[in-house]
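> example.struct
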């Protein structure tokens, strides 16, 4: 079982994160400058998952505004998918939301990204609408997804069950 660590993203991580971004979105992706700007933004939190060799396998970013969190980016290196890394990042994000008294989490996802939609539904995100022609590279629509209040028992119980089901990697959190 591979050991991985969820750590706060730093400017030193941007080159490697950018490489993953280019792999996943070859035609239209965030720039390095966008990541540097996000790291300097007081509303934003960004985390990476690193393996024992300090290689970045995945990352997530989100904003926290009053009682809502907005996930801005979540990506897993193509060579490391199906290892529950996205789940580990969502767990860290939701734990941060609990610490900061956030009530709701939202995001947009490509309507063709069925794997991601399925993952978010596992975490009890629900589709609440569509942003037409949202993605600049191909004009694809984005599904707007939102959680119920994360303090409700239904959400908390589901979240704890997911936390306890990570079994493909050994995750530690900084």
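> example.seq
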């Amino acid at each position: 079982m591979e050991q991985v660590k969820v750590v706060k993203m730093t400017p030193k991580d941007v080159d490697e994160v950018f490489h993953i971004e280019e792999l996943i979105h070859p035609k239209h992706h965030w720039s390095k400058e966008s990541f540097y700007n996000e790291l300097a933004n007081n509303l934003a939190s960004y985390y990476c998952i690193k393996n024992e060799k300090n290689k970045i396998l995945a990352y997530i970013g989100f904003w926290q505004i009053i009682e809502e969190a907005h996930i801005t980016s979540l990506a897993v290196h193509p060579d490391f998918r199906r290892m529950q890394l996205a789940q580990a990042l969502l767990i860290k994000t939701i734990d941060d939301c609990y610490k900061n008294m956030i009530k709701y989490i939202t995001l947009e996802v490509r309507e063709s990204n069925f794997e991601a939609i399925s993952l978010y539904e596992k975490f009890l995100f629900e589709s609440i609408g569509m942003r037409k022609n949202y993605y600049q590279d191909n004009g694809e629509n984005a599904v707007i997804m939102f959680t119920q209040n994360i303090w409700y028992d239904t959400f908390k119980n589901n979240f704890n069950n997911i936390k306890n089901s990570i079994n493909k990697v050994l995750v530690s959190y900084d």
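> remarks
Residues 2-168 form a domain with the Aminopeptidase fold (CATH 3.40.630.30).
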